Amino acid sequence: MKRLVWWTMALALVGLLGGRFWTPAWAEEAKKPSREGPPRNIILIGWDGAQRNHVMECLQRGELPTLKRLQQEGALVNIDVITGATDTKAGWTQILTGYHPTVTGVFSNGRFRDVPEGLSVFERLKKHFGQDFVCAAVIGKSGHCGEIRPPWKKPLEEVQKQQEKAEKRKAKQAAQEQPGAQAKPKPKAKPEYRIVEENGVQYAVFEGSPYYTMHKSCDVWEYGLMLDEKVGTRAIELLEKYKDKPFFFFVHFAEVDHSGHKHGENSAEYNAALISNDKWTGKIIEKLEQLGLYDKTLIYVTADHGFDEGKTSHSYAPYVFLGTNDPLVRRDGMRQDITPTILARFGVDLSKLQPPLDGEPLTQPATKPVLKAPETKPQAEKPKPKAKAKRKTQPVAP
Ligand SMILES: [Zn+2]
Protein backbone atom coordinates (compact mmCIF):
# COMPACT_ATOMS: atom_id res chain seq x y z
CA MET A 1 0.00 0.00 0.00
CA LYS A 2 2.72 2.41 1.00
CA ARG A 3 4.50 1.75 -2.25
CA LEU A 4 1.37 2.66 -4.26
CA VAL A 5 1.09 6.03 -2.50
CA TRP A 6 4.71 6.77 -3.29
CA TRP A 7 4.20 5.89 -6.91
CA THR A 8 1.09 8.07 -7.17
CA MET A 9 2.92 11.00 -5.63
CA ALA A 10 5.88 10.51 -7.91
CA LEU A 11 3.63 10.36 -10.99
CA ALA A 12 1.80 13.53 -9.91
CA LEU A 13 5.15 15.30 -9.59
CA VAL A 14 6.13 14.20 -13.06
CA GLY A 15 2.83 15.49 -14.34
CA LEU A 16 3.24 18.85 -12.62
CA LEU A 17 6.85 19.53 -13.40
CA GLY A 18 7.48 17.31 -16.38
CA GLY A 19 7.09 19.92 -19.05
CA ARG A 20 9.34 22.37 -17.28
CA PHE A 21 12.28 20.18 -16.21
CA TRP A 22 12.34 17.06 -18.28
CA THR A 23 11.74 18.26 -21.81
CA PRO A 24 14.99 18.18 -23.75
CA ALA A 25 16.28 21.49 -25.07
CA TRP A 26 15.63 20.61 -28.70
CA ALA A 27 11.94 20.04 -27.97
CA GLU A 28 11.70 23.42 -26.21
CA GLU A 29 13.24 25.03 -29.27
CA ALA A 30 10.69 23.36 -31.54
CA LYS A 31 7.81 24.61 -29.34
CA LYS A 32 8.82 28.27 -29.69
CA PRO A 33 6.59 30.11 -32.12
CA SER A 34 8.45 30.40 -35.35
CA ARG A 35 6.83 32.79 -37.75
CA GLU A 36 9.37 32.18 -40.48
CA GLY A 37 7.11 29.83 -42.42
CA PRO A 38 4.03 30.92 -44.36
CA PRO A 39 1.43 32.49 -42.02
CA ARG A 40 -2.17 31.35 -41.73
CA ASN A 41 -3.37 34.92 -41.19
CA ILE A 42 -2.15 38.48 -41.56
CA ILE A 43 -3.43 41.65 -39.90
CA LEU A 44 -2.39 45.01 -41.30
CA ILE A 45 -2.94 47.70 -38.68
CA GLY A 46 -3.01 51.37 -39.64
CA TRP A 47 -1.98 54.14 -37.27
CA ASP A 48 -3.20 56.94 -39.51
CA GLY A 49 -0.92 59.99 -39.34
CA ALA A 50 1.66 58.55 -36.91
CA GLN A 51 4.88 60.54 -37.31
CA ARG A 52 8.03 58.40 -37.11
CA ASN A 53 9.99 60.72 -34.79
CA HIS A 54 7.11 61.06 -32.37
CA VAL A 55 6.58 57.28 -32.37
CA MET A 56 10.29 56.74 -31.60
CA GLU A 57 10.14 59.23 -28.71
CA CYS A 58 7.12 57.42 -27.28
CA LEU A 59 8.94 54.10 -27.62
CA GLN A 60 11.94 55.45 -25.72
CA ARG A 61 9.66 56.60 -22.92
CA GLY A 62 8.17 53.10 -22.78
CA GLU A 63 4.72 54.35 -23.81
CA LEU A 64 4.14 51.87 -26.66
CA PRO A 65 4.60 48.39 -25.18
CA THR A 66 2.83 46.63 -28.05
CA LEU A 67 5.00 48.18 -30.74
CA LYS A 68 8.04 47.39 -28.57
CA ARG A 69 6.94 43.77 -28.36
CA LEU A 70 6.45 43.52 -32.12
CA GLN A 71 9.91 44.99 -32.62
CA GLN A 72 11.41 42.38 -30.29
CA GLU A 73 9.62 39.51 -32.02
CA GLY A 74 10.19 40.78 -35.53
CA ALA A 75 11.36 44.19 -36.66
CA LEU A 76 10.80 47.93 -36.65
CA VAL A 77 11.96 49.55 -39.89
CA ASN A 78 11.72 52.95 -41.54
CA ILE A 79 9.19 53.54 -44.30
CA ASP A 80 9.53 56.62 -46.50
CA VAL A 81 6.96 58.19 -48.80
CA ILE A 82 8.54 58.63 -52.20
CA THR A 83 5.60 58.94 -54.60
CA GLY A 84 2.12 60.34 -54.03
CA ALA A 85 1.05 62.96 -51.51
CA THR A 86 1.69 62.51 -47.80
CA ASP A 87 -2.03 62.22 -47.21
CA THR A 88 -4.67 59.61 -46.50
CA LYS A 89 -6.04 58.65 -49.92
CA ALA A 90 -2.61 58.45 -51.57
CA GLY A 91 -1.21 56.68 -48.52
CA TRP A 92 -3.67 53.87 -47.96
CA THR A 93 -4.12 53.31 -51.68
CA GLN A 94 -0.38 52.83 -52.08
CA ILE A 95 -0.14 50.64 -48.99
CA LEU A 96 -3.12 48.49 -50.04
CA THR A 97 -1.96 48.01 -53.65
CA GLY A 98 1.85 48.21 -53.91
CA TYR A 99 1.71 50.66 -56.82
CA HIS A 100 2.70 54.23 -57.61
CA PRO A 101 -0.14 56.73 -58.20
CA THR A 102 0.50 56.58 -61.94
CA VAL A 103 -0.93 53.03 -61.88
CA THR A 104 -3.82 53.49 -59.42
CA GLY A 105 -4.75 57.06 -60.37
CA VAL A 106 -4.74 58.06 -56.69
CA PHE A 107 -2.24 60.92 -56.25
CA SER A 108 -3.74 62.77 -53.28
CA ASN A 109 -6.94 63.44 -51.34
CA GLY A 110 -8.01 65.80 -54.14
CA ARG A 111 -6.73 63.92 -57.19
CA PHE A 112 -7.98 60.36 -57.27
CA ARG A 113 -10.18 57.76 -58.93
CA ASP A 114 -11.68 54.38 -58.11
CA VAL A 115 -8.63 52.06 -58.09
CA PRO A 116 -8.85 49.80 -61.17
CA GLU A 117 -10.24 46.34 -60.53
CA GLY A 118 -7.92 43.61 -59.28
CA LEU A 119 -5.03 45.74 -57.96
CA SER A 120 -5.73 45.68 -54.20
CA VAL A 121 -4.26 43.24 -51.70
CA PHE A 122 -7.83 42.07 -50.91
CA GLU A 123 -8.59 41.13 -54.52
CA ARG A 124 -5.17 39.49 -54.96
CA LEU A 125 -5.68 37.31 -51.88
CA LYS A 126 -9.23 36.29 -52.81
CA LYS A 127 -7.95 35.29 -56.23
CA HIS A 128 -5.04 33.34 -54.74
CA PHE A 129 -6.85 31.52 -51.91
CA GLY A 130 -10.45 31.38 -53.14
CA GLN A 131 -13.68 32.54 -51.53
CA ASP A 132 -13.19 30.65 -48.25
CA PHE A 133 -10.34 32.98 -47.35
CA VAL A 134 -11.71 35.91 -45.33
CA CYS A 135 -10.92 39.55 -46.11
CA ALA A 136 -12.16 42.19 -43.68
CA ALA A 137 -11.62 45.93 -43.28
CA VAL A 138 -12.53 47.86 -40.14
CA ILE A 139 -11.81 51.54 -40.67
CA GLY A 140 -11.89 54.54 -38.35
CA LYS A 141 -12.24 57.31 -40.90
CA SER A 142 -15.36 58.28 -42.81
CA GLY A 143 -13.61 60.21 -45.57
CA HIS A 144 -10.35 59.61 -47.48
CA CYS A 145 -10.06 56.09 -46.09
CA GLY A 146 -12.82 53.53 -46.43
CA GLU A 147 -15.61 55.53 -48.06
CA ILE A 148 -17.17 53.62 -50.96
CA ARG A 149 -18.77 56.07 -53.40
CA PRO A 150 -19.09 54.60 -56.91
CA PRO A 151 -18.19 56.67 -59.97
CA TRP A 152 -21.24 58.50 -61.34
CA LYS A 153 -22.20 60.67 -64.31
CA LYS A 154 -24.70 63.37 -65.17
CA PRO A 155 -25.43 65.22 -68.42
CA LEU A 156 -22.83 68.00 -68.66
CA GLU A 157 -25.50 70.64 -69.38
CA GLU A 158 -27.23 69.98 -66.07
CA VAL A 159 -23.98 70.09 -64.14
CA GLN A 160 -22.95 73.40 -65.74
CA LYS A 161 -26.37 74.97 -65.05
CA GLN A 162 -26.15 73.91 -61.41
CA GLN A 163 -22.66 75.35 -61.13
CA GLU A 164 -23.75 78.68 -62.65
CA LYS A 165 -26.65 78.88 -60.22
CA ALA A 166 -24.37 78.12 -57.29
CA GLU A 167 -21.90 80.81 -58.38
CA LYS A 168 -24.64 83.44 -58.74
CA ARG A 169 -25.98 82.54 -55.31
CA LYS A 170 -22.52 82.92 -53.80
CA ALA A 171 -21.94 86.30 -55.46
CA LYS A 172 -25.33 87.54 -54.21
CA GLN A 173 -24.56 86.37 -50.70
CA ALA A 174 -21.15 88.04 -50.74
CA ALA A 175 -22.70 91.31 -51.93
CA GLN A 176 -25.27 91.20 -49.13
CA GLU A 177 -22.64 90.52 -46.50
CA GLN A 178 -20.25 93.22 -47.68
CA PRO A 179 -22.17 95.85 -49.62
CA GLY A 180 -19.91 97.96 -51.80
CA ALA A 181 -17.07 95.49 -51.78
CA GLN A 182 -16.03 94.48 -55.23
CA ALA A 183 -16.26 90.78 -55.84
CA LYS A 184 -12.79 89.47 -56.57
CA PRO A 185 -12.73 87.29 -59.65
CA LYS A 186 -11.52 83.93 -58.39
CA PRO A 187 -9.29 81.77 -60.57
CA LYS A 188 -11.51 79.02 -61.96
CA ALA A 189 -11.07 75.80 -60.05
CA LYS A 190 -10.24 72.73 -62.06
CA PRO A 191 -13.50 70.85 -62.66
CA GLU A 192 -13.82 67.78 -60.48
CA TYR A 193 -15.15 65.69 -63.35
CA ARG A 194 -14.09 64.55 -66.78
CA ILE A 195 -16.28 64.83 -69.86
CA VAL A 196 -17.31 61.86 -71.96
CA GLU A 197 -19.64 61.70 -74.95
CA GLU A 198 -22.23 58.98 -75.37
CA ASN A 199 -24.74 58.91 -78.25
CA GLY A 200 -24.13 62.56 -78.95
CA VAL A 201 -24.73 63.64 -75.32
CA GLN A 202 -21.92 65.01 -73.21
CA TYR A 203 -21.69 63.76 -69.64
CA ALA A 204 -19.73 64.93 -66.63
CA VAL A 205 -18.17 61.85 -65.03
CA PHE A 206 -17.27 62.10 -61.35
CA GLU A 207 -14.67 59.71 -59.99
CA GLY A 208 -15.54 57.10 -57.42
CA SER A 209 -13.63 56.81 -54.17
CA PRO A 210 -10.39 54.78 -54.37
CA TYR A 211 -11.91 51.97 -52.30
CA TYR A 212 -15.14 51.45 -54.24
CA THR A 213 -14.11 48.46 -56.37
CA MET A 214 -11.74 46.84 -53.87
CA HIS A 215 -14.36 46.89 -51.10
CA LYS A 216 -16.59 44.55 -53.11
CA SER A 217 -14.09 41.70 -52.72
CA CYS A 218 -14.20 41.86 -48.90
CA ASP A 219 -16.45 39.81 -46.59
CA VAL A 220 -16.66 42.78 -44.22
CA TRP A 221 -16.04 46.43 -45.02
CA GLU A 222 -16.92 48.89 -42.28
CA TYR A 223 -15.80 52.50 -42.07
CA GLY A 224 -16.49 55.71 -40.23
CA LEU A 225 -16.13 54.11 -36.78
CA MET A 226 -14.00 57.10 -35.70
CA LEU A 227 -12.97 56.03 -32.19
CA ASP A 228 -10.14 53.54 -31.55
CA GLU A 229 -12.36 51.78 -29.06
CA LYS A 230 -15.04 51.14 -31.70
CA VAL A 231 -12.51 50.02 -34.32
CA GLY A 232 -10.69 47.74 -31.88
CA THR A 233 -13.85 46.24 -30.39
CA ARG A 234 -15.27 45.49 -33.83
CA ALA A 235 -11.99 43.93 -35.02
CA ILE A 236 -11.98 41.68 -31.94
CA GLU A 237 -15.60 40.64 -32.60
CA LEU A 238 -14.70 39.74 -36.17
CA LEU A 239 -11.67 37.71 -35.04
CA GLU A 240 -14.04 35.68 -32.89
CA LYS A 241 -16.43 35.27 -35.82
CA TYR A 242 -13.81 34.18 -38.36
CA LYS A 243 -11.36 32.34 -36.09
CA ASP A 244 -11.87 29.04 -37.94
CA LYS A 245 -10.92 30.40 -41.36
CA PRO A 246 -7.66 31.88 -42.64
CA PHE A 247 -7.95 35.65 -42.98
CA PHE A 248 -6.48 39.02 -43.88
CA PHE A 249 -7.70 41.96 -41.80
CA PHE A 250 -7.09 45.66 -42.38
CA VAL A 251 -7.69 47.49 -39.10
CA HIS A 252 -7.43 51.27 -39.34
CA PHE A 253 -7.16 53.58 -36.31
CA ALA A 254 -7.94 57.24 -36.92
CA GLU A 255 -7.47 59.00 -33.59
CA VAL A 256 -3.81 60.00 -34.11
CA ASP A 257 -4.59 61.84 -37.34
CA HIS A 258 -7.71 63.46 -35.92
CA SER A 259 -5.98 64.70 -32.76
CA GLY A 260 -3.01 65.93 -34.83
CA HIS A 261 -5.29 68.11 -36.95
CA LYS A 262 -7.13 69.39 -33.90
CA HIS A 263 -4.31 69.90 -31.40
CA GLY A 264 -1.01 69.67 -33.31
CA GLU A 265 1.71 67.04 -33.54
CA ASN A 266 3.44 68.08 -30.32
CA SER A 267 0.24 68.11 -28.26
CA ALA A 268 -0.53 65.87 -25.32
CA GLU A 269 -3.62 64.72 -27.24
CA TYR A 270 -1.57 63.48 -30.21
CA ASN A 271 0.71 61.61 -27.82
CA ALA A 272 -2.28 60.10 -26.01
CA ALA A 273 -3.75 58.96 -29.33
CA LEU A 274 -0.54 57.08 -30.18
CA ILE A 275 -0.78 55.35 -26.81
CA SER A 276 -4.41 54.51 -27.60
CA ASN A 277 -3.47 53.01 -31.00
CA ASP A 278 -0.84 50.90 -29.24
CA LYS A 279 -3.26 49.80 -26.54
CA TRP A 280 -5.87 48.62 -29.04
CA THR A 281 -3.24 46.92 -31.17
CA GLY A 282 -2.28 45.09 -27.96
CA LYS A 283 -5.90 44.05 -27.33
CA ILE A 284 -6.09 42.56 -30.83
CA ILE A 285 -2.93 40.54 -30.11
CA GLU A 286 -4.40 39.45 -26.77
CA LYS A 287 -7.49 38.16 -28.58
CA LEU A 288 -5.33 36.25 -31.06
CA GLU A 289 -3.49 34.66 -28.13
CA GLN A 290 -6.78 33.66 -26.47
CA LEU A 291 -7.90 32.05 -29.73
CA GLY A 292 -4.57 30.26 -30.11
CA LEU A 293 -3.94 32.12 -33.37
CA TYR A 294 -1.12 34.49 -32.50
CA ASP A 295 1.69 32.14 -33.51
CA LYS A 296 0.07 31.68 -36.92
CA THR A 297 -0.62 35.37 -37.51
CA LEU A 298 1.68 38.07 -38.83
CA ILE A 299 0.97 41.62 -37.68
CA TYR A 300 2.15 44.67 -39.61
CA VAL A 301 1.66 48.12 -38.08
CA THR A 302 2.23 51.09 -40.34
CA ALA A 303 1.07 54.63 -41.19
CA ASP A 304 -0.05 56.37 -44.38
CA HIS A 305 1.89 59.55 -43.60
CA GLY A 306 3.51 61.37 -40.70
CA PHE A 307 2.79 64.90 -39.45
CA ASP A 308 4.47 68.25 -40.12
CA GLU A 309 6.68 68.84 -37.08
CA GLY A 310 4.73 70.72 -34.40
CA LYS A 311 1.90 71.57 -36.77
CA THR A 312 -1.72 70.60 -37.39
CA SER A 313 -1.02 69.53 -40.99
CA HIS A 314 0.82 66.86 -42.96
CA SER A 315 1.43 68.67 -46.21
CA TYR A 316 4.92 67.17 -46.39
CA ALA A 317 5.31 64.38 -43.85
CA PRO A 318 7.03 61.45 -45.58
CA TYR A 319 8.52 59.65 -42.57
CA VAL A 320 6.70 56.64 -41.16
CA PHE A 321 7.59 53.12 -40.00
CA LEU A 322 6.63 49.46 -40.07
CA GLY A 323 6.48 47.49 -36.83
CA THR A 324 5.95 43.76 -37.15
CA ASN A 325 6.26 40.36 -35.50
CA ASP A 326 7.52 39.04 -38.85
CA PRO A 327 11.11 37.91 -38.19
CA LEU A 328 11.88 37.95 -41.90
CA VAL A 329 11.46 41.73 -42.30
CA ARG A 330 15.00 43.07 -42.33
CA ARG A 331 15.22 46.26 -44.32
CA ASP A 332 13.83 49.77 -44.62
CA GLY A 333 11.40 50.41 -47.40
CA MET A 334 8.78 52.59 -49.03
CA ARG A 335 4.99 52.76 -48.81
CA GLN A 336 4.59 50.59 -51.93
CA ASP A 337 6.59 47.71 -50.37
CA ILE A 338 3.91 46.71 -47.85
CA THR A 339 1.44 44.88 -50.11
CA PRO A 340 4.28 42.96 -51.85
CA THR A 341 5.50 41.91 -48.37
CA ILE A 342 2.03 40.61 -47.42
CA LEU A 343 1.47 38.82 -50.74
CA ALA A 344 4.92 37.20 -50.74
CA ARG A 345 4.48 35.97 -47.15
CA PHE A 346 1.16 34.39 -48.18
CA GLY A 347 2.94 32.59 -51.01
CA VAL A 348 1.65 34.61 -53.96
CA ASP A 349 4.04 34.49 -56.92
CA LEU A 350 4.73 38.20 -57.45
CA SER A 351 6.42 37.67 -60.81
CA LYS A 352 3.05 36.68 -62.29
CA LEU A 353 1.18 39.82 -61.23
CA GLN A 354 0.12 42.36 -63.84
CA PRO A 355 0.96 45.18 -64.03
CA PRO A 356 4.26 44.37 -62.24
CA LEU A 357 4.17 45.66 -58.65
CA ASP A 358 6.16 48.84 -58.00
CA GLY A 359 7.13 47.72 -54.50
CA GLU A 360 9.18 44.75 -53.36
CA PRO A 361 8.88 42.50 -50.28
CA LEU A 362 10.69 43.81 -47.20
CA THR A 363 11.63 40.21 -46.45
CA GLN A 364 14.01 40.04 -49.38
CA PRO A 365 17.00 42.13 -50.45
CA ALA A 366 15.79 44.99 -52.66
CA THR A 367 16.61 44.84 -56.35
CA LYS A 368 15.53 48.46 -56.90
CA PRO A 369 16.98 51.42 -54.97
CA VAL A 370 15.38 51.89 -51.53
CA LEU A 371 14.86 55.65 -51.60
CA LYS A 372 14.82 58.03 -48.64
CA ALA A 373 12.48 61.03 -48.73
CA PRO A 374 14.28 64.40 -48.87
CA GLU A 375 13.90 66.76 -45.89
CA THR A 376 11.97 69.30 -47.93
CA LYS A 377 9.30 68.71 -50.53
CA PRO A 378 10.84 68.04 -53.93
CA GLN A 379 10.40 71.05 -56.26
CA ALA A 380 8.52 69.13 -58.94
CA GLU A 381 5.70 68.30 -56.56
CA LYS A 382 5.17 71.83 -55.26
CA PRO A 383 2.10 73.57 -56.65
CA LYS A 384 3.05 76.03 -59.38
CA PRO A 385 3.12 79.61 -58.08
CA LYS A 386 2.07 80.82 -61.55
CA ALA A 387 -1.32 82.32 -60.74
CA LYS A 388 0.03 84.27 -57.76
CA ALA A 389 2.90 85.79 -59.73
CA LYS A 390 0.53 86.90 -62.46
CA ARG A 391 -1.82 88.65 -60.07
CA LYS A 392 1.03 90.61 -58.51
CA THR A 393 1.89 92.29 -61.83
CA GLN A 394 -1.69 93.36 -62.46
CA PRO A 395 -2.68 96.89 -61.46
CA VAL A 396 -4.39 96.96 -58.12
CA ALA A 397 -8.02 98.07 -58.31
CA PRO A 398 -8.74 101.21 -56.32
ZN1 LIG B 1 -4.91 63.89 -41.87
Describe this structure in words.
With 398 residues, this protein is of the alpha/beta class. The chain has a domain at 41-148 and 210-352: 3-Layer(aba) Sandwich (Alkaline Phosphatase, subunit A), CATH 3.40.720. Helix content is 40%, strand content 15%. It has 14 helices and eleven strands. The strands form two sheets. Strands 7-3-8-1-9-10-2-11 form an eight-stranded mixed sheet, with helices on both faces. Strands 4-6-5 form a three-stranded antiparallel sheet. It is globular, with a radius of gyration of 26 Å. Zinc ion binds at residues 49, 88, 257, 261, 314.
What's the topology here?
Layout (H helix, E strand, L loop, with lengths): L1 H21 L2 H7 L9 E7 L4 H9 L4 H9 L1 E6 L7 H10 L3 H4 L16 H9 L4 E6 L12 E4 H22 L15 E6 L2 E6 L5 H4 L4 E3 L5 H15 L4 E7 L1 H9 L4 H23 L6 E6 L16 E6 L8 E2 L3 H8 L40 H8 L5
Parallel strand pairs: 1-8, 1-9, 2-11, 3-7, 3-8
Antiparallel strand pairs: 2-10, 4-6, 5-6, 9-10
The structure holds zinc ion.
The site of zinc ion has 5 residues, from helix 11.
Largest sheet: 8 strands, mixed
Give the overall pLDDT as a whole number: 88
Q: What's the total helix number?
A: 14
CATH T-level topology of the domain at 41-148 and 210-352: Alkaline Phosphatase, subunit A
Strand content: 5-15%
Strand order, main sheet: write it out. 7-3-8-1-9-10-2-11
Distance between the termini: 116 Å
CATH superfamily of the domain at 41-148 and 210-352: Alkaline Phosphatase, subunit A
CATH class of the domain at 41-148 and 210-352: Alpha Beta
CA-based shape: globular
**What's the CATH architecture of the domain at 41-148 and 210-352?**
3-Layer(aba) Sandwich
